[in-house]
Every structure is written in C-alpha cells, then in structure tokens.
Amino acid sequence: MAKSTRRARRGVRGDVMEMWQAPKQSLPAQIVGIVMRWRVELLLVAVLVIGMVWLSSRLGTWGAWFTLAGVVLLGALVPWTRRFVVSRFWCVLDRHRIRTCLRNAKYRTMTLDGSYPFMVWARPSRTGERIWMWTRAGSSAEDLENVLEKLAPACFAREARLHTRRSLSTLVVVEIIRRDPLDKTAAVTSPLAKVTALLPGTKQPGEGTEPITGATVTPLPVTDKPATEGQASADKPAKATSKAKTTSNAAATTTPTAVVGGEDLSDYI
C-alpha cells in the first residue's frame, strides 16, 4: 500500500507539471498574440485586397490582375528590390521558425505561465539576420543559449549566435549566420592601390594594383650530398661579402616616405 501511494503521488505531481507546461490564457491575450506574430502577413493581405479592389474599380478585373503581375515581375527582375524582398522574407521566416524551435526544444525556454521571449524586431544583416528578443520575467539569456545549436537548423542557416547587452540583460540579440562575406573565390583587391598611384616619386606606375592573393611558393632544388668542410669555409666569406653589399645597396636606395592625410603609408606599400 505504501508503494502504490507513493506512485500515485508521483503521478499527481507529474500531472501538475504537465498543466504548467500548457497553461490557459485569456481570449484577448491570444488574439493580441496572434496579431503580433502574423502582423506582416496580415498587413500584406490587407494591402493586396485594398489594392485589388481599387484597381478593379479603375481598370477592371483583368486590368487589376495584369497590373499586379507586372508589379511582381518588375520586383523580381530589379536586383535591389529582389534582394529587399528576399531579405525581409528571411526575417519573417526566422521569427516563426525560432518560436517553433523554442516551443519544441528539449530544454525549457518559456516561463511557468506559458510566455515565450518577445521578438521585438528582426532586421537583415550582411551575414544573415538579427532578431532582437525581450526575455520575460522568469527567463534569461542562458535559457536561450541552451537551445542555440537548435536554432541554426531550424532557420535553415549555417550558424546561430547570441549576444547580450551589458547595460540591459533583458534584451538579447540572436544572430542567424547564412553566409560569410569573406568566403569568396575572387581575390580581394587592395584599397591602397589607388592611393599609391597618386603619390609622387613612384617609379613603377603599376605597382600595388594587383589583387592580394596567396603567397607564391617557388620550389628550390634539393641536393642529396652534403657540402664538405672546405666548401663550407669557402662559402662563408662569399656570403658575408654579398650580405654587406646588399646592406649597402639598401641604404643607398632608400624610398621616399609616403605620407597621406598625416599617416605614414610606407609600411603598406
């Protein structure tokens, strides 16, 4: 009887925890939450419906559809509008995917009243997207850090990072990494090439205009037989003489100092 009573008590405690995981919310709170989560989609549908009604009253049904198709085609063909639409699409998708990941994650990320971190804003960046999140009372950035490795595959990205603010720990930034701007096959051009071309006293006009690439390794011949003691002693004075000549030539041919805007650019040329 004692064991069965303990098992029954454990079952009751587990049921209570299950009730905490999915608490009841009021209807107004649910409506406000749905509107906030789907605000972009609702705004887009409202603009589309209003625009179609207005165009139908002016141009007719077929004219309205042709106008809509032309606007969509123009937005897809122009590069900057296409990039704008694609980047905003990923921002909207990230908000939904992050919420789904937080709800289905193994670690608890919501509070006991069922509140998830509030997603304040999502903006595109050069490497992907940045989502500002407001942690509610009862949660912290450490809770989001536990599921950080799950956010990248949920958002179809390569990596996810978490940044916190020292002045305000409630506000955290989740950075979704999709691409690396430096991961390119093309060579990176030197920004000092145009500056060196304007400097007076440059002997080679084309110097410094080549892009920065990897170092060129020249293979040297390898001798199997080691040098004898006589040859080594004979080579030492020759090496010392050549080194002294190189030093004197370098001191004689000194390049002029390149100063642009108060900065010495001799080390970069």
From TrEMBL:
The keyword Transmembrane helix applies. Residues 232-258 have a biased composition (Low complexity). Residues 199-269 are annotated as: Disordered. Keywords: Membrane, Transmembrane, Transmembrane helix. This is Uncharacterized protein. The chain crosses the membrane at residues 38-56, 62-80. It comes from the Bacteria.
